[in-house]
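Notes to self, UPF0756 membrane protein C8J48_1097:
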Amino acid sequence: MTMKPELLLVILIVIGIVGRSPIIATAASLLLILKLTHLERLFPAVERRGLEIGLLFLTIAVLVPFATGRISIKEVWAVFTSWTGIFALAGGAIATYMNGKGLDLLKVDPQLMIGLVLGSIFGILFLRGIPVGPLMAAGITAFLLKLFDWLLP
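result:
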């Protein structure tokens, strides 16, 4: 049984709304608009460069406090001289590594996105979690898959 792509996008929109993930709902909505306006020829370019553009804007957003002066050199130095700062550095490095592994996993197996979204909804509804994005969820999934392979060869 095959599902029409339009229906799948509508389902993703609903899942994004129910799961309080406006990014997923918006992304699926934009893709649905492209599909319904017969602009599918843009899909390969979006698929090829979309992640790079998204990561560029994310990085810009993270660097804004440096550009506005809200973060001073003194505060940057404090990161390297306190346990909290050192743990934050380690956490940031580990999270970035995990996100990279998640990106690799999603490139190989993009249909995992449905499980990640449904898992996020479960976490929101039953664990009182906050959705932070599919990339970290995919990174954790990649870690769990490696752990599973390692424990059960």
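- The radius of gyration is 19 Å.
- The chain has two domains: 1-38, 72-153.
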